[in-house]
Amino acid sequence: MMFESFGLDPARLYASFVDLVLVKATMVVSVAAIACYVARRAPASTRHAIWATAFCALLALPALHLAAPEADLTLVGVRAPAPTEIPPSDVRPISAVGSRPVVASSRAPKPIRPIVSESSRPLATVSIATAYRWVVGVWLVGLLVLLGRFTTHVAARRRLATERASPELETRVRTLAQEIGLRRAPRTVLSRDMSVPSAFGMIRPTVLLPAEAAVWPSEAFDAAVLHELGHLRRRDYVTYVVASIVRAVYWVNPFVLLAARRLDLERERACDDGVVTGRIDPIRYAECLMRLAWAGREPVHTSALSFARRSSLPERVRSLLDRAQKRAPLTAGRRFGILAFAAVALVPVVSIDSFGIVRLPAQAIGSLSHPDPLVRRHAAWALGDAESVAGVDALLERLDDPDPRVRAVAAWALGEIKDPRAIEPLGRLLLDDHRIVRELAVLAIGEIEDPTALPVLRELGPEVASETVRAWAIAEILAGGEGRDLHTGELTNPGFGSADRARLVAELSDEDPRVRAVAAERLGRLGDPDAVEALLDAIADEDPTVRATAVWALDEINAARPPG
């Protein structure tokens, strides 16, 4: 209930979360992977810059996702019914006598409420919103675990530094740092718990050496320290921290985890290239790398950049032995080109609304002010179908729309959203000049399931709404505490083809109201979105049974579809 208390739409937020973490994050990783494949013969520093830029984009993606301008770039969305010409409905104006409206029409035939039998109900139904809540709950647990693990590793690195390096070692490290152009000499510390060197720190750069490093051969010592100094010169610890946070946020996305492994590999290869370029022979460097990796313990998992991790060793050695491999450092021009490409590639990614869930409410709310009543009616339907809390205020304004059909659909939509703020405005519609609007208001009040509305509904006379409509609304309120949620889309008969659906839609225009009511009921049981347009027309039918059945059918179609 944490989102509902702020007036937000939880189903849309949860679906938007899936859109962000799975769909858009995969798009960002895919673009980076394609770019790295194109640059497969380029230096490792270039591919690392591509992956690092992608991870920075993933870190900024939630903010970009929320701030993205509206765009009609929906991959999988709810198709709103296309506006078509609607035949005029037989609406019956009423006149107020005292405080009670009186209908100038004959008594309607006894309607029959459509029902779904107990035997045909699904044994268990789990709403999409509930599924999203579980997804987000599991994701949150994983996020906290991984962030806690990273924090633990940050603390562990301090415990590894058991003693300060000797002046001789500090001098050797400082000399190598000056050789590669490192402006600030790092702090050098020793550890008796690690067998390979590592580097960490953004504010206070540190090189952590094994205690036995003092007796290493000079070439092996220079190779290992130059590699770690290369990390500090390239500020790789910044991208390491960013990647660790991104791993935690997107841990449910396997493609992001695979991309993180490629980022780690390219980072190590880029530092290897910096060591062997004009300093150490690649073959001798590969020998030092393998000797240090297999002679001691596997590096402890800390928030540090380690010289020799066995998991990445084969690919690093192959790269070192590849004479055709380019090893130039990243140039300013190439860095600018990567950033420009990333900026251009991100525009369609953040603009795409993969499930039609993020921008549908905004688009529909804007369409509620369209001069064409058909467009306003469809906008009201879309907001009701989406159960968009964001559209409540705009729908309340449409209850005063000059077109009665727009008022009727707006009332139905407010019932679908179930916002208690709509009860009083819907109560005012009980004095509307059109019976259809009054009946939709009664049904909407029932859909909101507020027990305080029961006395009003019980006192309504037949001039406001038919007995079936009033009984139906009262039954909805009384059954609300049972958590009943029918998903008739699950009851669809596989043998029921599109030709039969078309026949039912055609039967909604039959001369016999009983045929029309049965057709509306069967379309509702099918949960067929293609019937929405015809059922919207049917809520203006002259027969109250047909009207009530059409409203029920629209409600069933809405329940059978995932939010969005």
Cα end-to-end separation: 19 Å
Question: Overall mean pLDDT score?
Answer: 75
Series of H and E elements: HHEEHEHEEEHHHHEHHHHHHHHHHHHHH
The neighbouring-strand order within the major sheet is 3-4-6-5-7
Helix/strand/pairing category: mainly alpha
Report on the biggest sheet.
5 strands, mixed
Please compute the radius of gyration using only Cα atoms: 33 Å
This entry's quaternary arrangement is single chain
Count of DSSP E strands? 7
Residues in helices, as a percent range: 55-70%
Walkthrough of the structure:
- The protein has 564 residues and is mostly helical.
- It has 22 helices and 7 strands.
- The protein has helices at residues 10-38, 44-67, 128-160, 167-179, 218-234, 236-249, 254-276, 282-295, 313-321, 332-351, 360-367, 373-386, 392-398, 404-417, 423-428, 435-448, 454-459, 467-479, 498-507, 513-526, 532-538, 544-560; strands spanning 94-97, 100-103, 163-164, 187-191, 198-200, 206-210, 305-306.
- A 5-stranded mixed β-sheet has the order 3-4-6-5-7.
- Helix 12 packs parallel to helix 14.
- The longest helix has 33 residues, at 128-160.
- It is elongated, with a radius of gyration of 33 Å.
- The relative contact order is 0.13.
